[in-house]
Amino acid sequence: MDSQKKYPQAFSLEFFPAKNAESAEKLRETYTQLAPLKPGFVSVTFGAGGSTQERTFDTVREIKQHTGIDVAPHLSCIGSTKDNIRQILHNYKTQSIRRIVALRGDMPSGMREAGEFRFANELVAFIRAETGEHFHIEVAAYPEFHPQAPSAHADLLNFKRKAEAGADGAITQYFYSPDAYFRFVESCEKLGLDLPIVPGIMPITNFVQLARFSDACGAEIPRWLRKRLEAYGDDMKSLRAFGLDVTTKLCGDLLAGGAPGLHFYTMNQAGPTLALWQRLGLQSKGP
User: Does 270 map to a domain?
Assistant: First the structure.
């Protein structure tokens, strides 16, 4: 973990674009409640093949304008063309956006060809070629390994290619075993990689939803945790209290072990992230 301990700890949040007026108002309330925490930046997701492209643009502009916080839009390349990505980068430059979360993304439904980009490292290299050092580029990391990777070693090499293509940092998929993160970082160090790898944190508020997300993305819910969460049944209050204890300990262990910050997947809800942030004493620790 020596590679991570030299980076100053910074904390960030993730939102997704609203689908309608009601969810847009909820998102507005959420980022307004969380803005006083002064996160280092907030990220905004982007659908496969640009399926939420306009909503992502609108959300990025709104949050930046209303809070003054740095915003890092996600940019998925699968199913996109170089001209399309070039135009998006130009739009963000004109908005004075300085961060990008560069991702491969999932193949859009019904599409058979990947387009002009197959992997995230190709997107990172393209961004660097087109814009130089204008953007601080974050990429994804998978401590429990990407579900489509043929092996753990192959997934590590994929991450290495993204780092060497010009990534400035990485944000991990969420996980609940700190050892998975520590071992992943140690494996990266053995490959000679030296960039901040920030753990992604998913608050636990709904077991059914969490299990569905985890099955889809390959994030493991340890058996002991799954059984405890299942046992609460419809007692959501007790489940959330237990989930808060679990994620607080996870975050504390990660920071004590040298993690260079935390990235909270808010799910457009303020309460769980606020509770975690306050328990950990992270107020005003943005860069």
Answer: yes
Q: Which domain holds residue 76?
A: 10-277
- Domains identified in the chain, total number: 1
- In a domain? residue 283: no
CB 59 within 8 A of CB 44: yes
Catalytic residue from among 14, 62, 138, 144: 14
CATH number of the domain within which 166 lies: 3.20.20.220
pTM of the model: 0.94
Q: Kindly state whether residue 3 falls inside one of the protein's structural domains.
A: no
**Is 164 tagged catalytic?**
no
- pLDDT (tens digit per residue) in 7-45: 999 999 999 999 899 999 999 999 999 999 999 999 999
Q: What is the pLDDT of residues 121-139, one digit of tens each?
A: 999 999 999 999 999 999 9
Tokens of 176: 């609940």
CB crowding 228-257: b at 16 or more within 10 Å, else e: ebeebeeeeeebbebbbebbbebbeebbeb
